[in-house]
Amino acid sequence: MVDTKTQYHKIKKEVDEAVINVLESSQFIGGKAVGDFAANLAAYNQVKHVIPCANGTDALQISMMALGLQPGDEVITPSFTYIATVEAAALLKLKPVFVEVDEQTFCIEPLSVEKAITPKTKAIIPVHLYGHATDMEKIMSIARENKLHVIEDNAQAIGSDYIFKNGNVQKTGGIGHIGCTSFYPSKNLGAYGDGGAIFTNDDALASKLKMIAAHGQTKRYYHDVVGCNSRLDTVQAAILDIKLKHLDEYIEARRKAADFYDKGFSGHTKIKVPFRAGYCKHVFHQYTLVIENANRDELHQYLADNNIPSMIYYPVPCHKQKMFEAFGGNNFDLPITDWLTERVISLPIHTELDKEQQNFIISKVLDFLNK
Ligand SMILES: Cc1ncc(COP(=O)(O)O)c(C=O)c1O
């Protein structure tokens, strides 16, 4: 699905040098590389504070802790997402309230959010799935009216621009009260191991987030609140700082590959290519088709038989996962989510994909669907 090896070879000299610098400095935890990367990422993402942490799941958990959410508080999230979004809420004994996604964008649907609000609702967690932004202008307006916090799960959309109706442009992850991201290796900005970060423009929240990620301490060995240990490795920060300089070029390569797929599938009655809302710039973490009037699972197998990787993100929506039975997952009726989970399929998309590979993939998908 990705080719991180070829991508590494293109920046090998810079990366190797950065890693050796960390090794020579013997500063493996914190230090200059982590501070530099956080500052550069804050500038790139147009946010005041970036708090690096160990992974995207921690970023979500620390965010919910920093907002002071308490057991029983309700958080509204899509069910059509990676489990990490909701698992962090469950760990804190919050009540996940699953709502529908928009059929075209695959992101949380504002009207469903409004309908799900109760006196216990404390936060909304929109997920910018596959690299397409949620309709954040509406989500933020709902949050303001109902005095709710917004935590953006930006793990799949780093670098995406959101365009407000007045023409203002803001990177996703910097629109809500808090934004979370993951540097999992296959992500658009991927480390060579685990990593994550939290974004905020709020000074007080930034202090809390930092404190919680560092065992609840402000001063070494003085612990004011219960926190956790969540750090971005120095080696990973040094690598990410190099890769950040290439992020826009990586996004452009993904968008070009998506354009090429779009053309290859154009007009096919059984294929819905990814929708691109006018309010955002899709960064194509995934290139996900909706297959109609054909067997998606058989297509998945047919591609595998032809040595083409494809993935089903996600075969079981969160509300139907066993994990959430105890949280009343079964009580949610989400027909659009269910419909999508039965029909989506993601094709390889990455910075190194060439036209020959794409033509082969397109021809095999069409062979199967035209049978
Ligand atoms: C939407 C979403 N949220 C959260 C995460 C969790 O990130 P991590 O794997 O770094 O914990 C991921 C990535 O895997 C993700 O895709």
Structure in a nutshell:
Helices cover 40% and strands 15% of the residues. The protein has 371 residues and is an alpha/beta fold.
Tell me the total number of β-strands.
Answer: 14
Low-confidence stretches: none
The structural class is alpha/beta
Shape field? globular
Distance between the termini: 25 Å
Hey, roughly how much beta strand do the residues contain?
15-25%
Q: Could you tell me which ligands this complex binds, including any ions or cofactors?
A: pyridoxal-5'-phosphate
Major sheet characteristics: 7 strands, mixed
Rounded to the nearest angstrom, the radius of gyration is: 21 Å
Number of helices: 12
Question: Could you explain how this protein is built, in words?
Answer:
- The chain is an alpha/beta fold.
- Helix content is 40%, strand content 15%.
- The protein contains 12 helices and 14 strands.
- The chain is globular.
- Bound molecules: pyridoxal-5'-phosphate.
- Residues 55-57, 81-82, 84-85, 127, 153, 155-156, 182, 184, 194, 196 line the site of pyridoxal-5'-phosphate (PLP).
Give the topology, please:
Layout (H helix, E strand, L loop, with lengths): L3 H7 L1 H14 L6 H13 L4 E5 L2 H11 L7 E5 L4 H9 L3 E5 L10 H7 L4 E4 L11 H11 L2 E5 L7 E3 L5 E3 L6 E5 L13 E5 L2 H11 L3 E3 L2 E2 L10 H32 L5 E2 L14 E5 L4 H10 L29 H9 E4 L7 H15 L2
Parallel strand pairs: 2-3, 2-4, 4-5, 5-8
Antiparallel strand pairs: 1-9, 6-7, 8-9, 10-11, 12-13, 13-14
Helix pairs in contact: 2-9, 3-9, 4-5, 4-8, 9-12
The structure holds pyridoxal-5'-phosphate (PLP).
List keywords for this structure.
alpha/beta; globular; 371 residues; 12 helices; binds pyridoxal-5'-phosphate; seven-stranded mixed sheet
